[in-house]
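Chapter summary example.
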Amino acid sequence: MANKVITMQLIRTILQAFEKGFSLRHISRDLKLSRKTVTLYVSRLQNSSYSLTDLRSLDDASLASLVYSTQESSAGKEDPRKVYFIFRLPYFLSELKRTGVTRLLIWQEYYKANPQGYAYTQFCVLLRQHRKIQDVSMHLEYKPAEVMMVDFAGDKIAYTDKNTGQVIECPVFVCILPYSGFSFVVALPDASIPQVVKALNQCLQFFEGVPFVLKTDNMKQIVFKSCRYEPVFTEVMQQWALHYNIHLVATRVGKPKDKALVENEVKLVYQRIYAPLRNELFFSLAEVNAAFTRQLLWHHDQLFQRKNYSRKLLFESEEKKLLQPLPADIYELKHSVVAKVQKNCHITLGEDWHHYSVPYQHIAKTVTAVYDTDIVEVFLQHQRIALHKRSYKAHGYTTAKEHMPNGHQHYFEQKGWTPDYFLRQAEQIGPCSHQYMVGALQNRRFTEQTYNACRGLLRLAKEYGNDRFEAASKRALPGASFSYRIIHNILKGNLDKEIPAQGDLFQTPSHDNLRGPEAYQ
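The structure predicted for these 521 residues follows.
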């Protein structure tokens, strides 16, 4: 019965039977132990300095120190290879942290200095065992509402801009309350300080309360200067922390285990949010975050493994009531810049290179633009003269029609250029032309901005004839993009003369530079 576990209870049973005078053979048969095993432990008991009666009065720890000590090995018998390996182990582990250093390189250097040492396989086994011993993790207990940990996910999420077809990647911000595992996940346009502040505001609104500590790694948006003992936080984050009465804490540099809970939450985000959404297409950041919210609520309702409660239940029953109350107003990070109103009634926000309209009466005046992540306000002598939703489209225009001069607003009407005018002209050409003109008029936010393109389309109809223009419009409609240049290229390349089958929209046009098979005979 060599595989039977020799517990302290079994040792005391052996001691009791031996003290009563039972033979070793009887004890072996009664306890179903090998004769050798019983003899070994009885000899250890007899060789101690205690009597059998005194041995029974010892506690388990003292008795175990007597019977479990092997006493067979001594320092003189220890393998010299292992002694040398243990001596060099700190050097091996420190070298493996250096860039490009591998276990094979370390072993080659070790074996060259000690030819009688371990072979490569055994060297790696021992190295792995000692690394596991040194990498022991400590289990930390967190109090309810005590701390909130934040981090960015390593992988970004993407959506496709419908207007340009551009695939835009967005960073993902993750927050977690370690006690309950209740978390918040949001995709951001970028990882700038204003967006991080906005995400933190949304997180506290989602939790409906404020924890006492915010713990983060040394991300530059929050930590201005890293230090193990006294990290310096950015001025914006210090203001944010004062507003919400929350204490800022940064982890040690290069120590991700200091915030292991949020690191693990990022893995769960990949598994329970990214993976289920991997085959979905998104066309705006709002769609991405709506899907994130849906998956996050499902994640919170799932039971913990081998437990009968969920993150949501634990948060609402034990943690939520201990959070600090939210202040009356959210923290707003606003920037202000001075700008001059241009002749086209717009100012330029240099951070995004986007243009916003102001009333034409203020052309050439100097105004102040105050903006945050969502809103742009324009002030003149402390009076607000314009309000716009912020756009991050570089070199784009956000224009309010009422900001245009009356002469500009009526200019097109004086010319007779109205949507009805262009649609009537296109309808006389054909149904496809009319449908394409509708798309062209809807191509911009302000219809007046499309009039030049519509004029150009009508000019093409006169130049190439109504039949060809109708054929070109029919060919262009499946592309769902409406512009003067598309029709012009179709007509110029004679692509309108034969409507190709679906899937053959991009056949090479016929022209004089093409050579047939006869040119190669």
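To summarize the output: Residues 335-404 form one domain.
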